[in-house]
């Protein structure tokens, strides 16, 4: 088998997991290679995602390293056997590779946790809003909206979003576009698998809430991934300690945010505030523009 000309995030992550497993077992690439009947350099190429691994050798690798967790093994086997093809394949010439990687990861996720500061999360955007963000590029807009089918399809993942209030005040596309976008957030919050909270300007506690990210949860916690958006581009993080850090960070931000849009409050106290009330207040201000 020749080297891959392009390495997807799934392939890179699969190799990374194999290396992590081997390191935990205290084995060298040469030792694993001898046990599997392959050359040491091929092990390094496999761990770098440049070469695949058939099911027989993958199971042998896991046996040698004493990986017994059946769900973790099943997740690795699924990663190894996946073709990586899906609806997103039709967009491979229209969007960047990390966007395709994100769509593939979302398709296999059990839940998604998103924190945004200046934008409405992509899975919650209206078409008009997406058009502004993507410079009216029809294919990029269509790609984004096919991603959104995830939330309303069969067995959809749980989606929890915390949006900084700043994103609600950004008038991308003008008042009409933003008013419709705010209405759409309210509608989406009615889905049983969608929870939306707003982190208000007047939050007095700092929670390192300046970086946007998404936590993509897989069938097994060791395969969770963080998508981190930075000025130089998108980064996928799978290192367990880092993922756990973002997991705690999201829980902390959720705790500081206002109650969800869909949270019932039949007899709220006078000082009660929630995410829906804040959105309604901003929407009322927009109507006056």
Describe, in short, the structure shown:
Helix content is 46%, strand content 12%. It is built from 12 helices and 6 strands.
Q: What characteristic shape results from the CA principal axes?
A: elongated
Number of helices: 12
What gyration radius follows from the Cα positions, in whole Å? 22 Å
Under CATH at level 1, the class of the largest domain stands as Alpha Beta
Question: How many strands in all?
Answer: 6
Largest β sheet strand count, sense and barrel closure? 6 strands, mixed
Strand content is 5-15%
Instruction: Please trace the helix and strand order, writing H or E for each element.
Output: HHHHHHEHHEHHEEEEHH
Characterise the protein shown here.
The protein folds into two domains: 73 residues, lambda repressor-like DNA-binding domains (434 Repressor (Amino-terminal Domain)); 201 residues, Endonuclease, Chain A, CATH 3.30.870. The protein is built from twelve helices and six strands. A hairpin with a 7-residue loop joins strand 4 and strand 5. The chain is elongated.
């Amino acid at each position: 088998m020749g080297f891959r000309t392009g390495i997807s995030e799934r392939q890179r992550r699969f190799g990374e997991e194999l290396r992590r497993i081997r390191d935990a077992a205290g084995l060298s690439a040469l030792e694993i290679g001898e046990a599997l009947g392959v050359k040491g350099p091929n092990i390094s190429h496999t761990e770098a995602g440049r070469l695949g691994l058939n099911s027989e050798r993958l199971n042998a690798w896991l046996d040698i390293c004493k990986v017994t967790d059946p769900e973790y093994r099943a997740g690795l086997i699924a990663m190894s056997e996946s073709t990586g093809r899906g609806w997103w394949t039709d967009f491979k010439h229209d969007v960047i590779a990390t966007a395709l990687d994100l769509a593939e990861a979302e398709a296999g996720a059990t839940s998604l946790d998103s924190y945004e500061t200046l934008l409405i999360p992509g899975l919650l955007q209206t078409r008009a809003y997406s058009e502004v963000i993507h410079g009216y590029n029809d294919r990029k807009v269509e790609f984004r909206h096919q991603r959104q089918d995830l939330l309303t399809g069969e067995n959809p993942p749980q989606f929890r979003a915390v949006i900084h209030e700043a994103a609600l005040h950004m008038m991308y596309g003008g008042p009409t576009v933003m008013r419709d976008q705010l209405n759409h957030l309210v509608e989406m919050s009615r889905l049983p698998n969608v929870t939306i909270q707003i982190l208000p300007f007047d939050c007095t506690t700092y929670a390192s809430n300046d970086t946007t990210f998404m936590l993509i949860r897989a069938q097994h916690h060791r395969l969770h991934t963080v998508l981190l958006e930075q000025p130089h581009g998108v980064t996928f993080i799978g290192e367990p300690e880092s993922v756990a850090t973002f997991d705690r960070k999201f829980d902390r931000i959720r705790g500081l945010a206002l109650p969800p849009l869909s949270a019932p409050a039949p007899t709220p106290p006078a000082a009660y505030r929630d995410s829906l009330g804040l959105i309604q207040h901003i929407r009322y201000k927009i109507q006056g523009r």
